[in-house]
Design brief:
By secondary structure, the protein is mostly beta strands. It is about 0% helix and about 60% strand. The protein is elongated, with a radius of gyration of 14 Å. The termini are far apart.
Length: about 120
């Protein structure tokens, strides 16, 4: 089994910053990609940012220039630095990992439990 542990959420004022972390652990051969998604009340879960094992990143248009995703392969960890936060960034943020469990095996998606980010004055 693979477990994703998220941390770093909280309450912040508009214009403030937060840093989310997600650590993957468990039975896996490699991680192909990791990313962050968010789900606001009454809205569907949406992509925020992703990073591949090769370092290629992808961002939602709404966060470009404000959020930065980075990873540490040695620690199976992905980070999301969020700057210039806006009230519309308020959501539960979920970490996702695309995991290969055996050499030459299939990829599997795993999700974390989510961490609340609230941007409010």
């Amino acid at each position: 089994q693979v477990h994703l542990g998220e941390s770093g959420g909280g309450l912040v004022q508009p214009g403030g910053s937060l840093r989310l972390s997600c650590v993957a652990s468990g039975n896996m051969f490699s991680i192909s990609a990791m990313g962050w998604y968010r789900e606001a009340p009454d809205l569907q879960r949406e992509l925020v940012a992703t990073i591949t094992s090769g370092g290629t990143t992808n961002y939602a248009d709404s966060v470009k220039g404000r959020f930065t995703i980075s990873g540490d392969e040695t620690k199976n960890t992905v980070y999301l630095q969020m700057n210039s936060l806006k009230p519309e960034d308020t959501a539960v943020y979920y970490c996702k990992a695309v995991v290969v469990k055996t050499i030459g095996g299939s990829q599997y998606n795993y999700w974390g439990q989510g961490t609340q980010v609230t941007v409010s004055s």
